[in-house]
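Pilot study result, target chain (489 residues):
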Amino acid sequence: MKEAGVLLHISSLPGKYGVGSLGQCAYDFVDFLSASGQKIWQILPLGPTSFGDSPYSSTSAFAYNPYFIDLDLLVKDKLINKEDLPEPFLANRVNYNYLKETRFPILHKAFLNYKLYAHDFDEYCKKNDYWLDDYAMFMTIKEWMDDKPWSEWYDNERTRRAESLKWLKEEFSPERVKEFKFYNFLFYKQFIKLKKYANKKGILIMGDMPIYCAYDSSDVWANPKYFQLNPDLTPKAVAGCPPDFFSADGQLWGNPLYDWDYMKKDKYSFWVKRVKHSFELLDILRIDHFRGFAGYYSIPYGDTTARNGSWLKGPGYDLFKAINKEIPNARIVAENLGFLTKDVFKLLDKCNYPGMCIFQFELGDGKKNVPLKKGFKPNNVFYTGTHDNQTITSFYYQQPENYKKIIDNLCNIKFYDRPNLKICEFAMKTDCDMVIIPIQDYLGLPDDCGRMNLPSTVSNSNWSYISKKSDYTKELSAFIKKITEEGGR
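Predicted structure:
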């Protein structure tokens, strides 16, 4: 069965207090998707963000972003009073500094009433103790250390001396440890209700999982054995991408690499737990940088560019065999973009996961009468663009005339048409089983007010896009439903 959906992160919902949330704005968006004939809502990773505000660089591979906890629902649950709410405001961009300063004092007031949900909270903590204890301890120490990365902590805390951790947890700040756990409980409680509502409306939630963990994360701090680290806990090598047409120096991501040999002996328990944990909230999981499982690019730690890296063999199908054994029939989508080799295609075929086709990457060379690089097989997800791409409107208008003509012919664009809508219509008619279109491409937004992220940059505009309540019109809903039905979805 062919399906269609919309890409919009929770942060980009028109939230009442400066950022999208799991409250009414999320329920309204589910209603919009349902009325528009959509079956999938794709979001980005849900972890708490750190420097740069990227959801792909989190302090935990398991924890949740507290900014998305809806404040009005906390009032409804009697955890805070109406007087505790900030003044409502509809922001044009997410201001993460403002959220950091204002959101936690409100969440702290909610925590003071945690006993209202003591039983459910205790059950949640027991169920998630395999990651939650370490995460809450990590965040408590990090706060105590003025937000320094764990590699710069005192030796006792950096190396996890048992007596030091016991003192911190039982004497120094037991309530703060509990509070960080409570934030995750609140998020989980609100998300599960939202998911049930979405599923009842026929909407599946598709999430995203970064392949790597941030070095400054509870995952690396608590489980150094799973990573390629030296005895002093510095990375032996880090992740990235080799030099290519777009970057002469390549991309230096800096994430520590996995010790796949150790993970194999451990039956890939870290990954199995991670995927299983994700499916508690998600119906479909997209795994980022899938090619890294076939072969990964290893860059010597301390290098300032990715020039001196080398390709090493990844875990291959062995990893996914372990995942499939524990989580049979899991719906997984592979982000198979970038430098692809035969071993990547072989692994994708063996896993039988859908890959991805991005309209902006599929055009021919503009010289021959070949509109597309390749046909679109059914077992793929077709995107007009992802969170890392230009909006389709800016992409179209920045093309040279020969490319623009190719797009016009391919999508039947006339001079009186809105190109973004014709490209969305083309996407719906492809053979791919699934089509996902960012809301910005339906709205026809240019990059300066609609682009979600410009890779390899750090700026206030990255990850800060917010849609407007007025964007979700009946006319847009009717158009989306029309082209979805015409595409046989």
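One observation from the pilot: The mean pLDDT is 94. A full batch analysis is planned for the follow-on phase.
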